[in-house]
Amino acid sequence: MTDKLYYRDIDKKEFNAEILEAVKEKKGWRVVLDKTCFFPEGGGQPADKGWLKDIPVTDVQKEGDLIYHYLAENPGTGAAAGRIDFDHRRDFMQQHTGQHILSGALWKIGGYKTLAVHMGEDYTTIEIEAPDIPEKDVIAVEEMANRVINRDLQVSIVETGHSELHRFPLRRPTDLKGKIRLVRIGDFDCAACGGLHFKSTREVELVKAIGVEKIRGNARIAWKIGGRAFADYREKDKIITALRTVLGTKEDMFAQKAQELQEEIVTYKRKCNQLENRLAETAAQNLFEGQQDPGAGFRVITVSWQDEDANLTKKILKNLINREKVVVCAVNVTADRVQWSIGCSADVDFSFDGIKDDLLSIIDGRGGGRFPLWQGAGAAPDRAGDFLKKFRELHCS
Ligand SMILES: [Zn+2]
Predict the structure, then answer these.
(1) What spacing in Å lies between the alpha carbon of 97 and ligand 1's midpoint?
(2) Cα–ligand 1 centroid distance for 192 (angstroms)
(3) Is domain 274-395 annotated with CATH 3.10.310.40?
(4) How much is the pLDDT for 162?
(5) How far is the CA of 126 from the centre of ligand 1 (A)?
(6) Options 3.40.50.720, 3.40.50.300, 2.40.30.130, 1.20.58.2190; which CATH number does 3-84 get?
(7) How buried is residue 367: exposed, middle or buried, by Cβ count under 10 Å (0-12/13-18/19+)?
(8) Of 6-10, 150-154, 273-277, where does mean pLDDT reach its minimum?
(9) Domain 90-235 has CATH 3.40.50.150
(10) 191 CA to middle of ligand 1, Å?
């Protein structure tokens, strides 16, 4: 049986113990000590972190009366000094003590039963036996919990047996057997729990609800508790200050301002699209008029662009091949590659397959397609001019 020092003194950060066993397992060296300050994972509270003989302790689990510490290296045998990461412990004691107060307040405000608790690295959630919870109840719970915190109520541990449970005002019944550990928060709350808690509610400092979501048909409320609530306030304040500058307005106008900007974007996008269509029509018309039928039975149009917008080039090409008796070959040259497109009108007897290899080899290109449009890219943008010249030669001879 491991002597659980954490129950006797929750403030103890360092201890000396004897290593009774160290066994290599898949997830590391499983170490049993005669006594420990390391709290094992349980009741929604994560395991303590820390060091044993300066080797990081990565996990702590409870198996019957034994506590298993998992280490990355073999600590050997004999005496060992242990040290827990107290910032981590303190954070989770804040989460755990805060959760008891919140569960008590949920019960008192609306008869909301706590079904499940999760203490994550970022926030703590409480799932309640109700499909939803009105905002006014969440606010009332938050206010009641913060009043309890400020009342500096004593948090005490009582160990009792099942037959004595009726003497205590339990928030929820327990089916635990043997010695039962009760956590009492002054006259406010009483629940069976094996976790670690502060001695006074004041140390929880502050609780703040940050959202409600639905899970398994129940409402689940997310909370920032203790130091995390202050950090969250600071972070949100930073974001608001930045937004004030960006949006040029006070926070009570943020939503309206964002809505106005969204509407402006929609209007500009529509205008931009109209202008692009007109530009494509004009550009296509100029290209079309610039080329006459060289005798092949269709006009051969070649065009070279530099870093042109892909949407615009697509529209110009579409406009051209929607005309009669046209074959078009276009390149769009960027710093390290060349995009090529070849297309034709539906009334032209044109085959790309016959000229594909001759053309693509010039620009070290790849790609393909099917009648009436073929597209791809090449790795030699400096030879884009030769590519167009070759295309003309093949059709204007
Ligand atoms: Zn607890």
Answers:
(1) 6
(2) 7
(3) yes
(4) 83
(5) 13
(6) 2.40.30.130
(7) middle
(8) 6-10
(9) no
(10) 8
Distance 177 CA to ligand 1 centre (A): 17
Longest dimension (CA), the chain: 107
Gap from CA of 341 to ligand 1 centroid (Å)? 68
Distance 227 CA to ligand 1 centre (A): 18
Q: What is the pLDDT of residue 25?
A: 94
CA of 96 to the centre of ligand 1 (A): 6
Q: In what order do the strands lie in the sheet with 114-119?
A: 114-119, 124-128, 218-225, 207-215
* Closest among 39, 33, 40, 1 to 17, alpha carbons compared: 33
Is it the case that residue 275 has pLDDT exceeding 70?
A: yes
- Short-list 77, 16, 79, 5, CA closest to 48: 5
Residues whose Cβ atom is located within 5 A of ion ligand 1: 96, 193, 195
Distance between Cα 119 and ligand 1 center (Å): 11
Ligand 1 centre from 102 Cα, in Å? 11
How far apart are the CA of 47 and the centre of ligand 1, in A? Answer: 14
Give the model confidence (pLDDT) of 348-366 as tens digits: 988 898 899 999 999 999 9
Instruction: Note if the bond before 134 is cis, omega within 30 degrees.
Output: no
Rounded to whole angstroms, the Cα distance separating 56 from 71 reads 6
Tens of pLDDT along 59-91?
Answer: 999 999 999 999 999 999 899 999 999 999 999
User: CATH topology of 3-84 equal to that of 90-235?
Assistant: no
Closest CA to 344 of 376, 385, 388, 300: 300
pTM for the model stands at 0.76
| Sign of the dihedral through C-alpha 148, 153, 157, 162 | negative
Q: Where are the domains of the chain?
A: 3-84, 90-235, 274-395
